Amino acid sequence: MSETNRIEYKLELTKDLHLEKEVVAFLNYKEGGVVYIGIDKHGVAQGVSDLDANMLKIKDKLKTNILPSCLGLFDVAMVVVDHKNIIKVTVASGSEKPYYLKKYGMSEKGCYFRSGTTSEPMSQKMIDELYAKRTRNSIGKIKATYQELAFEQLKIYYQAKGITLNRQFAKNLELLTETGGYNYVAYLMADTNNTSLKVAKYKGLTRAQLIENADYGYESLIKAVKQTLDKIDIENKASTTITAKERDELRPWSPIALREAILNAFVHNDYTTEVPPKIEIFDDRIEITSTGGLPNGLSKEEFFEGYSVPRNKEIMRIFKDLGLVEQLGSGVPRILENYSKDCFKFSDNFLRMTLPNAHYQKVLVTEQVTEQVTEQVTEQVTEQVEQLIKIIKNEHSSTELMSLVGLKHRPTFLYNYLQPAIESGLVALTIPDKPKSSKQKYRLTQKGKTVKKQ
């Protein structure tokens, strides 16, 4: 793999390596990028020795030598390439462009941008234009109206991760404005605030009948988020179906995708509107709505491909410290492993994720057995399952079936077509003892053939 506009290779971390220059260029680039250390210019992995020490050096360099602060905008991790340990530095596009080298200031010698596979110095005109557009209403710059704040809850969560917050924690976590007062990030992280997070549950498919309205708020955002995740985990309990051969457990929603959707909503919400994310549970779906729409400079295509432009880099940094989020840009791709792009709805002011309830879409089967051992089956099938059993003629692989029903998104096919058909006894595996066999195919059962005739 060769270098691209988003990928840079460096053989080793030396005194002569201007890593900060490459990171500044990616911070100023609309799509961010990745720097691999331990790979030569030809794309061949050579490896890195003393990984831990080098990773600490990188974090310190980026923290100390770049302005505005890029904390929360980069991630340093170890990856294995061709059996060699490599350092991967993932950089998100920043919202406070232009970023520059602290040593040289906001000048042509300090500001860089990505041009093809190289990092080029900016002209003074480019610097001035970016500075004019710089975001000025971020929650890191807004002074909290209430300054008597306490952070015992935040300190407890950090301590649980083995990190003790010292007297300089407010400065280190960027909880202060330029004038030294607490900013709006500090207000959200404080033990007491006026932010109320609600998880509403309705009976049916509309908002007509509210049956539960859990309120997690007026406390540290971290505590409220953890309570919200615990509540959703209870709502996402598995139902168990016992068949002749095995015990199947199916949750209404993919736990990984649901968690990522909720955390994305909290991290990227536009808190300058003072409207927190909202979670609503219906019989057939869960809706997760955040305020703010797409961040400036990020297209829908880039959003789905996992490019990250954190709206609240200070919150992102704290969430990463506490292990709530892992890697920059990993949330949306994880959601798309289980759900289609159609689950996302964008507007100028909001972003809503709607995840369908797998239980609601399951096929309902009623069996009646007469005294003459005659079986009469009444089937209530979804349109997707009906479409599937209509096209099955003999034995087909899952790839063939996806093609026949006109689908390319495998999780949608599995959750909405194949899995419900198998669970209801309409479709059977040709190799039931090895469900993941590469030679696995699917055929109609006698019950399936009966329903197809009907």
What does it look like?
By secondary structure, the chain is of the alpha+beta class. The chain has helices at 19-28, 51-65, 124-133, 152-160, 169-172, 184-189, 221-235, 255-268, 300-304, 313-321, 331-336, 383-391, 398-405, 410-423, 446-453, and strands at residues 7-10, 33-37, 66-67, 74-81, 84-91, 100-101, 112-115, 118-121, 196-202, 210-217, 239-242, 247-250, 278-281, 285-291, 344-346, 350-356, 364-369, 375-380, 427-429, 442-444. The chain folds into 3 domains: 7-133, Methyltransferase, Cobalt-precorrin-4 Transmethylase, Domain 2 (2-Layer Sandwich); 196-356, Heat Shock Protein 90, CATH 3.30.565; 364-453, Orthogonal Bundle (Arc Repressor Mutant, subunit A), CATH 1.10.10.10. The strands form 7 sheets. The protein has a 6-stranded mixed sheet with strand order 10-9-13-14-16-15, covered by helices on one side. A hairpin with a 2-residue loop joins strand 7 and strand 8 (118-121). The chain starts with 6 loop residues before the first strand and ends with a helix. The relative contact order is 0.09. Residues 242-248 and 363-379 have low confidence and may be disordered.
Q: Roughly how much helix do the residues carry, as a percent range?
A: 25-40%
- The residue-averaged pLDDT reads 86
The value of Rg in angstroms is 26 Å
The CATH topology of the largest domain turns out to be Heat Shock Protein 90
CATH class (first level) name of the largest domain:
Alpha Beta
**Strand arrangement in the largest pleated sheet:** 10-9-13-14-16-15
Helix/strand/pairing category = alpha+beta
Largest sheet: 6 strands, mixed
Number of E strands: 20
N- and C-termini, Cα separation: 54 Å
